[in-house]
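Sat 14:20. Reprocessing the chain from the morning session after the first attempt stalled halfway. Input below, unchanged.
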Amino acid sequence: MADLTGKKILSLQTNRGVEQDELKVPLEKLREAGATVTVASQENGEIQSLVGDWDLGETFPVDQKISDVNDSEYDLLLIPGGTLNADTLRLDQDAQKIAQAFASSGRPIASICHGPWLLVETGLVDGKTLTSYESLKVDIRNAGGTWVDQPVKRCTAKDWVLITSRNPGDLEPFVQAIEDELTA
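Finished this time. Tokens:
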């Protein structure tokens, strides 16, 4: 396990609909490695996760509202999936500004499953090669990105790193790629 002591990660998601394990597993693993992970959402309180976009999952405390985030404090942006979560988050202007700030400053973004919808909406997939849940393939291509079907993809095009994965089955290599990025 990597030592991520001193590293700060910002996780963006809505208060309802994030895929449980796509939030839970990275949070647990990255915190175990010593990183500080801030869970930001649209409202204070709790996040109601879902399992398989349908069944109620665990709840997670919100550390900060997205609108109050100072993105310059963080080393990496984490965007978990979940269809409802990602479709709502992609329209959040504060989340859009944060994603754009990370990319323009050259800081890495890691996104899994439906999470890349936020990056599609902001134009950040243009010129990038990435993976995601298969249903985003056409959206990514239409936004100028190249979609690949592999467990994890790290793309350095356009002077910033994008780490993506397809689904909860890819969480182990996804988290490993985040750890590798933060210790490089």
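The chain has a mean pLDDT of 98.
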